[in-house]
């Protein structure tokens, strides 16, 4: 695992948060003084005196964990590990590691919303639950737990077979069947662009058809295997966040860490209460105006 310096991490997060240079969050002035308060590094606006920190307004807001550990957690999210293993590797408590992983997944949720499926689509309805967990020898499989219907959808370049985007979504309605045409339509409406009148561009695979195994079947098997081996299976409450993480990694591959740093810099804070309880919607940071003047003066 790489070791990062705090300065390098600050530089990377600065670029993610202010890609065209510092902007005062109150008056958008582009110049600041470096100041320190109670050991924290702050940016003080030259114009209005407003002080802000690097993590303020980002998904890392309020963290007391050093940035270098956050960056190691982002690095490890390229593999997808449990909070328990993360806590051992970067030397934080289990609770901290759990929250870090979930805050990163919250940032990934933003990526998911910004990037709907488009072009030629392939869909596969599946179930996640006991029978899969049992199949892969999960230790925490709960026999009473109902199987969760999910839809696996991918944007495919037909000529080359290359997958350019992937989403796996748990169906909202309890007891719904993933191959139901209403559910497939709902999936397209929520997660694909120009979803209307595009029946010819969508290929739907049947999970029960053993003769026609598609790339989507293989992807789904990988997802189930990862959930079983790494976490011993995941319950319905947080399943969607883990599936989004899987898709993020699968689509971005080597670029996933750079993308995650960018997302952390521009995704608004989620408070821990929201994370543990019902998952709240994402509020992207609003950038009201475009600024062309990126000249920056640092005085201290
Ligand atoms: Zn200001």
What features would you highlight for this structure?
300 residues, alpha/beta, 2 domains, four-stranded mixed β-sheet, 10 helices, 39% helix, 16% strand, binds zinc ion, Transposase, Transposase_Zn_ribbon
Q: What's the topology here?
A:
Elements: H1 6-17, E1 32-37, E2 40-45, E3 51-52, H2 67-76, H3 83-90, H4 94-114, E4 121-128, H5 130-135, E5 148-157, E6 162-170, H6 181-191, E7 202-205, H7 215-231, H8 236-252, H9 256-266, H10 272-276, E8 298-299
Parallel strand pairs: 1-8, 4-7
Antiparallel strand pairs: 1-2, 2-3, 4-5, 5-6
The site of zinc ion (ZN) has 8 residues, from loops.
- The rough form would be described as elongated
- Poorly predicted residue ranges: 131-135, 278-297
Number of strands: 8
Largest sheet: 4 strands, mixed
Order of helices and strands: HEEEHHHEHEEHEHHHHE
Mean pLDDT: 84
Strands of the widest sheet, in order across it, are 3-2-1-8
Our count of domains comes out at 2
| Count of alpha/pi helices | 10
Strand content: 15-25%
Q: How far apart are the first and last residues' alpha carbons, in Å?
A: 35 Å
Bound molecules: zinc ion
Helix content: 25-40%
Helix and strand composition category: alpha/beta
- Specify Rg, calculated over alpha carbons: 21 Å
Organism: Cohnella rhizosphaerae
Domain Transposase zinc-ribbon: 5-51
InterPro entries: Transposase_Zn_ribbon (IPR024442)
Pfam family, one: Zn_ribbon_IS1595
